[in-house]
Each structure stands twice: as structure tokens, then as C-alpha cells.
Amino acid sequence: MFIDELKKKVVGKGVKIVFTEGEDSRIQEAAFELWRDDVCVPILLGDPDKIREASAARRMDLSPVEIIDPKHYEDIEPMVQEMIKLRKGKMTEEQVREKILHANYFGTMLVKMGKADGLLGGATYSTADTVRPALQLIKAAPGNKGVSSCFLLTKDIPVANSVSQIIMSDCGIVIEPDADQLTEIAIQAARSMRQFGGDPVVALLSYSTNGSAGGDDVEKMKQVKKNLTDLHVDFPFDGEMQFDCAIVPDVAEKKFPESKVAGHANTFIFPNLSAGNIGYKIAARLGGYEAMGPILQGLNAPINDLSRGCNADEVYDMAIVTATQKLFFE
């Protein structure tokens, strides 16, 4: 399985991942298994007594796992002062002291201060509540103007017109990106594919293939292609093209025969969030892919979001993804 290959890369590396919702039973179960398998070093946020009592009732020994209650953290003052600097002019000291007691901000500051390598949240928080502190405190990595997201979709046994590992972007952050934003999203998505061991082949998706139809979105994707060409990026890309042309060699031969990408793409860039979000869910629900994400792209550190409907196995897998990103940062 694909996730097992990633797991082999991170086992024993001691990557510290903070989980903002330590009192959630799904997080506790995943943390226990992650610690037991030496996948990462989990840090749980919440009331230590409640977490240990709840986990013991399910016969899980979390005594080796670090549990932090933000309200009783002895070293919080340096974090407060750093956050005041980061939010200067946007938050008062009083507001900072109030916000930092929230697990999403406290966990993000643990990453910022180097006390954790990455963060995983969203089991009960909204995507916005996970992403906002990351944007405010971790911020975009050098060379990135913005932050986007992708979904990593995997299938153990390829079938006709499918590949075992694909990236779809953006499916969770940027609602209506312009051509420049889509250019950056394409570069970030290609980087994500490489983080997870693949060679990116990028398709710029549309309802049109190589000028077969017109419209603003078509022109936008044409501009993205021009931008990527001018930037001399180090991965193959092409567009605009329809999805079937991007993945089916016979269709590509008829619709876009001169393209070196059409027919065998594995990294798909959607013209807007609506298309991307619908697309990855169709792939997961009807195409039999396992979808992991949203995985944030373009940040200075690995911060990732969970679905509020996630189970412990999905938390476990996303921790592996987050730890893999940390190794790539190094």
C-alpha cells in the first residue's frame, strides 16, 4: 500500500506532531497507535486527567505521550511575547493572551517555537480555524505568495484509465483563483507530488481541450500555461484540457495528440475551488480512491487539516503524511 511506503520513511525519525483536539477519542486512538508504531512523537492538547481517564477506559496506555493543557503551560510567556511580535498592530496583548489559550493557536505556536515539527487539527475545528492561525503565525514559505491545498488520492490496484497516486488541487482553500494564483498552485501541487515520492505530470483542467471552446475560465488556464512556460518550471505540464483527455491515452490521441502530458497526467489543477472539491469527492466516492487531505501547500511548516467526519485510521494516515512533509522540509 502507498501509505505503508510513506510510513517506512518516517518510522523512527522522531517527528513531533501536535494534535489540537487531544480530548477526542479518535485522536487518542490514533496517537496511541502512532506512538506504539514509532511513526511520530504525538503531543496531545487538552486536559491531561480527562485524556488519560478516557484512554484508560478503552485500555490504551497514553502515559508515555506528552499531554499539554494550554491553560497550565509553564513556558507560555515566551510564546505570548513571540505571538505579540507576529501579530503586532493586528492583535493587542490582551487579545493574544486570550487567543493563545485556544488549542489551535497554542498548537501553532508550538510549531512556530520549534517545540513541535508539525500540526494536525480539524477533527472538531473547521478548516478555517485550522488554517487561520497557520497563515497568521507560520506564514508562507519563501518564494510563495499564498497558501493552497491539495488532496492526495491513492488506489492500491490500478484499473483502466487510472493511476495509483494522484494529486488534485486546489480543493479546500482558494475559492476563485486568478491565473497567477493558479500558476503558484500548480507549482505547489507538483512539489506535493514529489514530497510523496511521485514525478509530477501536471494537467491544467477545463471544459475545453486545446482551444476547443471559449470562455473566461478557458482563457485563465491558457494564461497559466503561458506563466509556467515563462517560469521554465522543472516538471511537464499542459492545458487547457478536459479530464478525460488528461487521463485516457486514446482520448488524448484524438483531442490533443501533440501534448506530452495528455493521457498520462497525475497532478490535476482545477480552475476553481468548486470544481476541485467536487472532483476529488467523485474520485473518492465513485472511483475507489482513498483521499487524504486537505494537505496545506506553501507554508513554512507542515500544518494539515482533518475532516470532522474522520476516523482514527484516517488520523493515523494524515499523521504519516504530515511527518513525510517534515522530512521533505529538511
Automatic annotation (TrEMBL):
It catalyses: acetyl-CoA + phosphate = acetyl phosphate + CoA. Pathway: Metabolic intermediate biosynthesis; acetyl-CoA biosynthesis; acetyl-CoA from acetate: step 2/2. GO terms for molecular function: phosphate acetyltransferase activity. InterPro entries: P_Ac_Bu_trans, P_AcTrfase, P_AcTrfase_dom1, P_AcTrfase_dom2, Phos_Acetyltrans/Butyryltrans, PTA_PTB. This is Phosphate acetyltransferase. Belongs to the phosphate acetyltransferase and butyryltransferase family. Keywords: Acyltransferase, Transferase. Its EC number is 2.3.1.8. It comes from the Bacteria. The keyword ATP-binding does not apply. PANTHER family: PHOSPHATE ACETYLTRANSFERASE. Residues 1-323 form the Phosphate acetyl/butaryl transferase domain. SUPFAM superfamilies: Isocitrate/Isopropylmalate dehydrogenase-like (SSF53659).
